[in-house]
Specification:
With 274 residues, the chain is mostly helical. Helices cover 68% and strands 3% of the residues. Bound molecules: zinc ion.
Length: 274
């Protein structure tokens, strides 16, 4: 099915999102959402409700909050030490996955630190590249570990919450056959939830099933700002790059979504080399 959307409608809808002040208990990022119950983190996509942040252990609270302060000063290596301390305490699949996303963002930071104007000092650039690969490898290890932990638990009991984490991790690693079967488990939950619609949105966007993807994007975008990233990705995959760019510029001003930032950089780079 070819894709046709009303760009002004989505831009207006995106405008109506305000920072709500809810905080992710796995990465301490502010979540921009219209949901008063469970919401999905803009940064790491883990689901939580406001009570979890309030009940968070004070040591983990300290590590992940300080980590974000360090990132804002570009002190990523110091931030990574705090992430490792948080994982040492909380080895839940949620925390492992969220930390995997931290390492992916750190890897991207190093990758973009390459200075193409450095002529006589190319070894400095190769150090950034090398570190970027190492960080990406750490990220993948944590995400694969997340999938395994979810898998091991799900073989003994159907846990819809954990199935969501597994699907997000599987789609991130492009394990689409596994994700398909995880989605069936998620959809067998008789209760409606944002998490369930979100999982469907992610899966159908990843396989570029435009009909189903738009259906779930429309539903999720009522409360979760991340839906606009999936809309942008779908637009890029269907050669509607200008519309995607308009959404991504606005989205990146409103929320901290690493994938949305990378997608916009990719579009701008391809324009410069065209
Ligand atoms: Zn988070």
């Amino acid at each position: 099915m070819s894709l046709s959307i009303s760009l002004p409608k989505y831009l207006r809808s995106l405008d109506s999102f305000q920072g709500k002040g809810s905080t992710c208990p796995y990465c301490a990022n502010e979540i921009s959402t219209k949901s008063s119950g469970e919401s999905i983190c803009n940064f790491c996509e883990m689901p939580s409700d406001t009570s979890q942040w309030k009940k968070l252990r004070s040591d983990i609270h300290g590590f992940i909050t300080a980590k974000n302060n360090l990132i804002s000063k570009n002190s990523w290596a110091e931030a990574a030490k705090l992430v490792e301390q948080a994982i040492a305490i909380d080895q839940s699949p949620h925390m492992l996955y969220s930390s995997g996303i931290f390492y992916e963002a750190y890897s991207n930071y190093e990758w973009h630190s390459v200075d193409y104007n450095l002529k006589g000092y190319m070894e400095e650039n190769s150090m950034h590249r090398e570190l970027s690969w190492q960080l990406l490898s750490r990220s993948k290890t944590l995400i694969y570990h997340t999938i395994k932990m979810c898998h091991d638990t799900l073989t003994s009991e159907p846990d819809y919450h954990l199935a969501y984490v597994k699907l997000i991790a599987e789609t991130r690693m492009k394990r689409m056959a596994q994700a398909r079967s995880t989605l069936s488990l998620i959809n067998s939950d008789p209760n409606p939830s944002t998490r369930k619609d979100y999982a469907n949105m992610v899966y159908y966007s990843c396989i570029n099933d435009t009909k189903n993807a738009i259906l779930y994007i429309d539903s999720v975008s009522n409360t979760q700002i991340n839906a606009f990233y999936y809309l942008s990705k779908l637009l890029v995959n269907n050669s509607m790059t200008e519309d995607a760019k308009a959404i991504l510029v606005k989205l990146n001003n409103k929320a901290n979504i690493p994938k949305a930032r990378e997608l916009l950089i990719k579009i701008l780079e391809s324009e410069n080399t065209a």
